[in-house]
TrEMBL record, chains A, B:
GO terms for molecular function: ligase activity. It holds the Pfam family AMP-binding_C. Belongs to the ATP-dependent AMP-binding enzyme family. The lineage of its organism: Bacteria, Pseudomonadati, Pseudomonadota, Gammaproteobacteria, Alteromonadales. SUPFAM superfamilies: Acetyl-CoA synthetase-like. This is Fatty acid--CoA ligase. It comes from Alteromonas oceani. Residues 456-535 form the AMP-binding enzyme C-terminal domain. The keyword Ligase applies. Transmembrane segments: none annotated. Residues 30-406 form the AMP-dependent synthetase/ligase domain. Keywords: Fatty acid metabolism, Ligase, Lipid metabolism. It comes from the Bacteria. PANTHER family: ACYL-ACTIVATING ENZYME (PTHR43859), BUTANOATE--COA LIGASE AAE1-RELATED (PTHR43859:SF4).
Length: 547, 547
């Protein structure tokens, strides 16, 4: 298009969007607010800004240059937060190592990302030492310690301990301008087949994700999650999609922040009470763990707003948290999307509903965020209607989507087919904009020529009071193509498959599901197989059920 | 720097930042909220989105193409807001015509911008008709009418009336993607010498300004001005620096919005009361006019937050507004800066102060916004210390600064000297980040080898209870170089020059100003000369005093 672009002054500064600009807001508004680690250490924003600069100088001293990749293996910590800034502000790339992968997969990702320096918590030193010989690109390691004597690491070249290395450095570092499209972060998404795939995000993408999140979670009355006076504690691993990007937003807001280290359910509940945490985010599994632990049973959670994502939030679990006083919101996104795509927003009418009726909106996937263009598409690529009943694959355009899979040319073209990112999720969109994820395309059960959502069935089964957890998968069936099989963890030993089938009859009678949606096969188990990030592992379930 | 930039999928969508993405949020959250014109017309966000698309189709039918310039001459209206979106979303450029300039200057700007189509309110038809023959680039006019018979326009080619043209069009329009650096808006800044200078802003700049403002004014407890449930009414002309960019943010937030048309003080007060307006912004002159009108005298303004900018806010005026119940904040920016640079943010300690003590912070210019890199520079370009006492010229880098003056190569290089935008304002910056504008560089009074701030003197004089308005300028003096001269409007006929000098003695005695800062020359007048945008016109004052 013949739009007009004017040539400005020769010296005009075009202002590339860089993470250092988020950092420039740290302490600008509330310099005395604190960043706290496990209740054991506490740093003001003023200290934080000095430490990030010390870390940057320490990284430079360790040989890190622009374009290098620096890996971190840590629990959620103030140190990890410091790395979120120092590494990319040097023009280097922060590799968030998923420490829940198998050792072979961890090594695969570190070689694939070509990590040069690795910061590793004492808890992961044995793993790192075991892998060291297989990682030719790694030139050195920095120890992250919570105290105590570290295990022996005969195979690793350890440059020093984090705090000692910081202490040697000046707390002033000039961070240069560079291209806003430079890669800032990378991490790996684990499908159920094939090798982990590397996604990556640029400075521009992270700045846009952050400033949008600062507005989205604070300025809308229907979504009052994170403001400058919030006390924020992530319960999503920082290696998992930037802890949903919230740490960057929290720094920009100068919030009080609590980093819980390794997740110990009773400690998490204690931290929430002690610091009056009012905002967290996690996957349903973690919420369940938190409510189910000893302190979870005896502690009220009034004033705690919890944003749930990663997989569908069962109504039963949502209800249990609300009964404890927690305020429930849902969000939707994935590793490829930085991640924010949709989030619960209750409009004026919805906010006026009784809590019980709000539950429906709070457990749907929310509405598209600002700057997110979301639609559902039929297999042909034709947009499906946003009428609440038509279903299609969710495709998106936003400013913060991975532009590809690193060194995976075929897979990245599939991801971006037709110029929109394909999420692999099947959903309907309601006329008021609420997105209702029905299933993963690959988990949809194709039975008798119809699509049956495994997630919808899981939700209905979970509403039985004696069901603690449930997974539904499609299994091959000669007559129908596939049939649903349910795997159930009972909270009451007397629960039987028949009870569940009977429970489902009410939804058949109300017309909510068809008669043929009720599974013939229901297996009671002690535990549902999970992936490294706590999601139901349907691949393993199918293999188990196939026996 | 050898940063890493990865090549993504061939079809990956890079998501240029375009105004259509702000528009996509209109009605996404609160579709039933209203956009109201003078209390006479009201449109839901759903209607607004349809009308903008009708307008875009009408503009296309009128021959508007990408790269063309479309001018608007209107008061603050829903129609102007519709133009804020429809024109740039077509790839065309919206020229905000400053209708307060002299006819010759208006013609100059319209020729300089090469306006092709002009939307003009009935009130400005006589002016437009008078100028028509001098505007060779203009191919047609669209009438904006509040009803009634328009004056005759023998020289203009009027294509039709706005509402009739919209009614003919479909309410669906596909807005294309294009380069985010395309010019979206242009308008003219009026110095006191030379021709008006054209500044311009791209889609990228306006999107960044908007999403930053949505977070800045809503998510910080020290600055709770604009959230989705706000009722917003601008009292800054929409032709003046995008009405400070707030209309774009208000649309993104789906706020209730009141557009007051031509400013009539009693109507403004009525609208504030009728619609429970809780956020407005204006220059001090307008605030004074509003407080001083008949209804202003008799009406409480509790719950009304007012953001003041454009020129320094005298403490006396701030106090008068606060006594009425209004909540006062200050901001700083200029035509070249889109405009947001700084805004009042009260941190936890400052919020705990009594109202009287908060006044100091509320009348300073505030702290730098997120994404704004602000510093003060000595004449050599060396940064001055942010210690509250050193002064220097304010220079900035942000993502939303005009990259030049259109067709003014020399002036734009001066503006961007050294890669930072030079504001021409002299300030000190306090250790807590508060910026205290001392003066325009050209208005600083150089007396006896010292710099004396004309604004500071104005502020002190305004604190005399019988002073209604004041201006101070430097006048040539044989002995001292320059000496301050004050021009004063008294609210009490008995006020004399001696009273003011005596009033200033207290500040000499407290050490706040030097003895030599007290003006020998104080002239009592009926009115202070103002520029077209309501600022004190020091050029005219100097000419008058030189007599």
């Amino acid at each position: 298009m013949p739009v007009k672009i004017l040539q400005g002054a020769e010296n005009a500064h075009a202002y590339p969007l860089l993470i250092k600009q988020i950092f420039a807001s740290a302490g600008r508004f509330e310099p005395d607010n604190q960043i706290i680690y496990r209740g054991e250490q506490s740093f003001s924003y003023s200290e934080f800004t000095r430490r990030v600069q010390q870390l940057a100088n320490a990284l430079k001293a360790a040989g890190v240059e622009a374009g290098d990749t620096v890996a971190v293996m840590d629990w959620d910590s103030h140190r990890y937060l410091e790395c979120y800034f120092a590494v990319p502000m040097l023009g280097a790339i922060l590799h968030h190592v998923n420490i829940r992968l198998s050792p072979e997969q961890v090594a695969y990702t570190m070689n694939h990302a070509e990590d040069k320096l690795v910061l590793v918590h004492d808890d992961f030193l044995p793993l790192a030492d075991q892998l060291a010989a297989q990682l030719p690109t790694v030139q050195g390691y920095i120890r992250l310690s919570d105290g105590g004597t570290p295990p022996a690491t005969p195979n690793m070249s350890v440059l020093g301990e984090y705090e000692s290395l910081l202490a040697e450095q000046s707390s002033e570092c000039d961070f240069p301008d560079f291209d806003e499209n430079s890669v800032a972060t990378t991490f790996y998404t684990t499908g159920t087949t094939g090798n982990p795939k590397g996604v990556y995000f640029s400075h521009r993408q992270l700045v846009l994700h952050t400033i949008n999140m600062v507005g989205m979670l604070g300025s809308y009355e229907g979504l009052p999650l994170l403001r400058s006076n919030s006390v924020y504690m992530p319960i999503t691993p920082m290696f998992h999609v930037h802890a949903w990007g919230v740490p960057y937003a929290a720094v920009m807001l100068n919030c009080t922040q609590i980093y819980p280290g390794r997740y110990e359910p009773n400690l998490l509940v204690d931290l929430i009470k002690q610091y009056k945490v009012d905002f967290s985010h996690c996957v349903p599994t973690i919420l369940q763990m938190l409510l189910g632990c000893e302190k979870g049973h005896t502690t009220r959670l009034d004033g705690w707003k919890i944003l749930i994502g990663g997989s569908a939030l069962p109504k039963g679990l949502a209800k249990a948290a609300m009964d404890k006083g927690a305020d429930i919101y849902s969000a939707y996104g994935m590793s490829e999307t930085c991640p924010l795509l949709t989030v619960t927003h209750l409009n004026k009418e919805q906010r006026a509903l009784p809590a019980e009726e709000q539950l429906k909106y709070r457990t749907l996937t929310g509405v598209a965020s600002n700057l997110v263009d979301l639609r559902i598409e039929e297999p042909s690529g034709k947009p499906a209607a946003h009428n609440g009943s038509d279903v299609g694959e969710v495709t998106v355009q936003t400013p913060w989507l991975t532009q590809g899979y690193h060194k995976e040319p075929a897979k990245q073209e599939e991801l971006w087919e037709g110029g929109r990112l394909h999420t692999g999720d099947v959903a309907s969109v309601h006329p008021d904009g609420f997105v209702e994820i029905k299933d993963r395309i690959k988990d949809v059960i194709k039975t008798g020529g119809e699509w049956l959502s495994s997630i919808e069935l899981e939700d209905l089964i979970s509403q039985h009071p004696d069901v603690a957890a449930v997974a539904v998968v499609g299994m091959p069936d000669e007559k129908w193509g596939e049939r649903p099989h349910a795997m159930v963890v009972a909270s009451n030993n007397e629960l039987s498959a028949g009870d569940i089938q009977q429970h489902l009859q009410q939804f058949v009678e109300s017309g909510h599901i068809s008669k043929w949606a009720v599974p013939e096969h229901i297996t009671l188990v002690d535990e549902i197989p999970k992936t490294s990030v706590g999601k139901i592992n349907k691949k393993v379930i199918r293999a188990t059920l196939a026996g």
